[in-house]
Amino acid sequence: MPADAGGGGGGVLRLGTRTSPLAMVQARGVAARLREAANATVDVVGISTAGDRHRGHLGELGGKGAFMSEIDRALLTGRVDVAVHCLKDVPGDVPRPDELVFAAYVERDDVADVMLFPASSGIQSLADLPPGARVGTSAVRRRAQLRRIRPDLRIEYLRGNVDSRLERLDAGEELDAIVVARAGLTRLGIDRPGEALDILPAVGSGVLAVDCRRADTEVVELLRLLDHPETRRCVSAERAMLHGLHGHCNSPIAGHARIERDGRLSLRGMVFTEDGSLFVHAQESSPPEKGEGLGASVAADLLRKGARDVIADIPH
């Protein structure tokens, strides 16, 4: 453990995160868990990232990796000891630094994508939206699946923190609905009516990944106290599928693993064209300890069914 890090020894564990309101809430939640589990002293350190500073399309910066590089650098240079990431924002086609390790996956929250409507509109469901309604989201995975369900909708690119997106929605001038992650709403304490959509979530949805330097073995062991074995098994399958597909940051890839009632680990994966008109789908199961093999098998099945051609047609 770093000389100035906690764990009950009087030092401080520096926990880095993005500076967005949601990221700070998530980091404070992880810090509280560490204090409770190990009597650790934890300071949350906000780190401004290129992805947060940039107001345009994330593809202009190379995708979701724009949220990672400054935080990785802070870990590698010793500015912070631990970092917290939304796992769904960790790219699948960019290798992680060998010096870093996800020592804990916090127990998964709700993976649902929720459609919200202007507070004054009276609309309560996707089916209530009129033809040509404007729906805001930045996720290609959501856009593709929404277009499969309602090809008449106008899907608008929408970024920003949850509060700013809600403000734009309630202004009633630009958008008739937006789609957000229910986990984010819950973590922010936002209780707002909406419709959970019947679409497949992103790989890593609802999971917070806690990162640290691999060589800091005491910190690794400390973070293991937060690791949720079932979530790790599911994540290992989902991430192995993502790696096997070699999808870039703009690929409409969806995947969700879960432990079934019979104790087996199941994984469902889908890849879409940008407009959702074509897709490939695969689903398999395995013993729960074989998650990486399961993910590789589902990826191979998707590739046999043409996933490579679908992904290749989507611009970076």
Automatic annotation (TrEMBL):
The entry's keywords: Porphyrin biosynthesis, Transferase
Domain of life of the source: Bacteria
Coiled-coil intervals: none
Annotated Porphobilinogen deaminase N-terminal domain residues: 13-220
Domain Porphobilinogen deaminase C-terminal: 233-303
One Pfam family this sequence matches: Porphobil_deamC
InterPro entries hit by this protein: HemC, Porphobilin_deaminase_cofac_BS, Porphobilin_deaminase_N, Porphobilinogen_deaminase_C, Porphobilinogen_deaminase_C_sf
GO molecular function, one term: hydroxymethylbilane synthase activity
EC number: 2.5.1.61
Cofactor note text: Binds 1 dipyrromethane group covalently.
S-(dipyrrolylmethanemethyl)cysteine sites (modified residues): C249
SUPFAM superfamilies per UniProt: Periplasmic binding protein-like II (SSF53850), Porphobilinogen deaminase (hydroxymethylbilane synthase), C-terminal domain (SSF54782)
Necessary cofactors: dipyrromethane
Reaction catalysed by this enzyme: 4 porphobilinogen + H2O = hydroxymethylbilane + 4 NH4(+)
Homology family: Belongs to the HMBS family.
Biological role stated in the UniProt entry: Tetrapolymerization of the monopyrrole PBG into the hydroxymethylbilane pre-uroporphyrinogen in several discrete steps.
Misc: The porphobilinogen subunits are added to the dipyrromethane group.
Subunit details: Monomer.
The protein's name in its UniProt record: Porphobilinogen deaminase
Taxonomic source organism: Actinomadura violacea
Organism ancestry: Bacteria, Bacillati, Actinomycetota, Actinomycetes, Streptosporangiales
Gene: hemC
